[in-house]
Amino acid sequence: MKLRAELIALPPRQQARRLAAVAASLVIQINHTEPHAPEAEAALAAIRTWGDGGGLTGRYVSDLVYSDDERGALRRLSEAAGEPSEDGWNALTTATMYVAWLVYQETGEPMPSDVNEVGEDSLDLLDEQLAKLHI
Q1: What is the reported pLDDT for 1?
Q2: What pLDDT does 44 receive?
Q3: Which one, out of 1, 29, 54, 90, has a CA that is 20 to 30 A from the CA of 83?
Q4: What ranges make up the beta strands (E) of 1-135?
Q5: Alpha-carbon distance 83 to 72, whole Å?
């Protein structure tokens, strides 16, 4: 709940900037056991870019989690099941989906149902995931 209170008081792009710092910590954690994780780097780059004012689409950001070609953080999360990096992938996926939700809201693009379900409650989940990782 602490993370939600901290973030929802901020404008969306500032929320993304704060989440970029969180995502950077998660990428470091993932890289400890998976030195080649381009999906994690891409998610971090998108969160940073949008937070810094870049013009990304909601579709672009949500595709970093999952896409029609089954690439992205969600695929890496399923591959990491039972591995030390699983919790990091889980939290990074949550953070990226939340930012996708923010982007969709700003751009007014039609929001897919899975992104539409994200919302501010996801910040509570992310807070729990980060506590488990001690981040």
Answers
A1: 60
A2: 98
A3: 1
A4: none
A5: 17
Using CB atoms within 10 A of its CB, is residue 75 exposed (0-12), middle (13-18) or buried (19+)? Answer: middle
C-alpha atoms less than 13 angstroms from C-alpha of 72 in its C-beta half-sphere: 20
The residues, ordered by sequence, that sit 6+ positions from 38 with a Cβ below 8 Å of its Cβ are none
Cβ contacts of 26 within 8 Å, gap of 6 or more: 40, 44, 88, 91, 92, 95, 133, 135
Cβ atoms 30, 40 nearer than 8 A:
yes
- Name which of 63, 21, 57 is nearest 42 in CA terms: 63
CA 87 – CA 117 distance, rounded (Å) = 21
Verdict on whether the full-model pTM lies above 0.85? yes
- Cα-to-chain-centroid distance, residue 17: 12
Could you tell me which of 75, 79, 6, 9 has the C-alpha nearest to residue 43? 75
